[in-house]
Amino acid sequence: MRGAVLYGPKDIRFDERPDPKIVAATDAIIRLSATCVCGSDLWPYRGVDRSSEPTPMGHEYCGIVEEVGSAVRNLRRGQFVVGSFFASDNTCEICQAGYHSRCVHHEYVGAGGAQAPFLRVPLADGTLVPTRELPSKALVPSLLAASDVLGTGWFAATAAAVGPGKTVAVVGDGAVGLCAVIAAKQLGAERIIAMSRHPSRQKLALEFGATDIVTERGDEGVARIKEMTRGLGAHSVIEAVGSSEAMMQAIRCTRPGGHVGFVGVPHGADFPGQDVFFAEVHLHGGPAPVRRFLPELIDLICDGKIDPGKVFDLTLPLSEVAEGYRAMDERRAIKTLFTV
Amino acid sequence: MRGAVLYGPKDIRFDERPDPKIVAATDAIIRLSATCVCGSDLWPYRGVDRSSEPTPMGHEYCGIVEEVGSAVRNLRRGQFVVGSFFASDNTCEICQAGYHSRCVHHEYVGAGGAQAPFLRVPLADGTLVPTRELPSKALVPSLLAASDVLGTGWFAATAAAVGPGKTVAVVGDGAVGLCAVIAAKQLGAERIIAMSRHPSRQKLALEFGATDIVTERGDEGVARIKEMTRGLGAHSVIEAVGSSEAMMQAIRCTRPGGHVGFVGVPHGADFPGQDVFFAEVHLHGGPAPVRRFLPELIDLICDGKIDPGKVFDLTLPLSEVAEGYRAMDERRAIKTLFTV
Question: Which of A214-233 are b and which e, b meaning 16 or more Cβ less than 10 Å from the residue's Cβ?
Answer without folding.
Answer: beebeeebbebbbebbeebb
